[in-house]
Write a structure and sequence with these properties.
mainly beta; single chain; 0% helix; 140 residues
Length: 140
């Protein structure tokens, strides 16, 4: 039984805009959902029992970050605007090895948040886009 758990403070998100270089962001949290579409192929051959086959791979995620005035989302280095393509790295960088899943994406939405008793925050939602690159999983 493994008890090698990782703290959330090692979670990172990197963004590489199309044609740009990797920017590591000061994130609060991120989510990544990887799924497939399931197609119903129930027929007489399956005895009328539900049968499914997998469709294309899909991925979507959200990132929430502190608004760092030294590296703002609209700066050329970050270049995070709705509709732009790039690679998002969702993962963990603590310990001896980094484990990052790289997802080619298109930015769907960018949002900004401010409140009286919290820091300024921003975030974005992205969905997988095969035209932006390849999905890369961490090495085993």
């Amino acid at each position: 039984m493994s008890l090698n758990f990782a703290g959330g403070h090692f979670a990172t998100a990197g963004w590489t805009p199309a044609g740009g270089t990797l920017v590591t962001l000061n994130i609060k949290d991120h989510t990544l959902d990887i799924s497939v579409m399931l197609h119903d192929v129930t027929c007489a051959q399956t005895g009328g029992v539900r049968a499914r086959v997998s469709g294309p791979l899909e991925a979507a995620g959200s990132v929430h970050a502190d608004l760092d005035l030294d590296i703002e989302p609209w700066m050329p280095a970050v270049n995070l605007f709705p509709g732009l393509r790039g690679i998002v790295g969702f993962g963990y960088t603590g310990g001896l090895t980094a484990r990052v899943i790289q997802i080619p994406t298109s930015v769907e939405k960018v949002n900004y948040q401010a409140s009286m008793e919290k820091e300024l925050m921003w975030g974005w939602d992205a969905k997988m886009n095969a035209l932006a690159g390849l999905v890369v999983y961490p090495a085993l």
